[in-house]
Design brief:
Blueprint: H1 3-10, E1 25-29, E2 35-40, H2 47-56, H3 64-72, E3 76-84, E4 87-98, E5 103-111, H4 120-134, E6 139-142, H5 149-153
Parallel strand pairs: 5-6
Antiparallel strand pairs: 1-2, 2-3, 3-4, 4-5
Bound molecules: coenzyme A.
Coenzyme A binds next to strand 5, helix 4 and helix 5.
Amino acid sequence: MGFWKSLFTTSNTMTAPPSQKEGGVTVSPTAAPDTRIFFSTDRDIDLYDLEELCDAVGWSRRPLRKVKKAIQHSFLVVSMWEQRGSSRRLVGFSRATSDHAFNATIWDVVIHPDFQSKGLGKALMKYLIKRLRSDDISNITLFADPHVVDFYRNLGFAPDPEGIKGMFWYPD
Ligand SMILES: CC(C)(COP(=O)(O)OP(=O)(O)OC[C@H]1O[C@@H](n2cnc3c(N)ncnc32)[C@H](O)[C@@H]1OP(=O)(O)O)[C@@H](O)C(=O)NCCC(=O)NCCS
């Protein structure tokens, strides 16, 4: 078990109250005394920081005004930050849309390549699921790129349950 993973499993800080909107939730301390990784549900995110994060994993750029609107209208926005002293770096992001009753769909799951394979993506997803479940949402869906199907499968997501297919309509 890696360093980060052992810290996650020994940390109980992902059980923050669902009402907490800002200020973040400490995921773990790190080796350096002035460095920590934490979650935040504050949706006031610098869009250029987010664009840089998405660029780092090779995602196509999207108009920032639409990204801003999507964040504003999401049900839940979770960002992950590395804090070193007084400086913060956005290292992970995801969001979920919802009908606030039955269904939520998770979008834009991303961890910066410098921070991948340390358990952060899994921690981010578990945190999202915990928050959605705490709002009594039972049907959580997402659209997985082909290379991450097993990442989500390991978190309990089933592709095509009972033969149900995701279907898409695109403009011509
Ligand atoms: C997919 C992504 C979020 C995973 O984040 P991560 O922090 O690297 O993943 P973790 O370190 O938390 O991995 C958790 C587990 O999933 C596994 N895993 C990670 N990426 C995987 C992948 N692409 N396929 C299958 N398993 C994967 C890990 O081996 C680990 O397994 P373990 O618990 O048995 O040790 C990250 O690689 C990423 O941001 N990729 C680019 C953006 C992207 O493709 N997002 C998904 C769009 S649908």
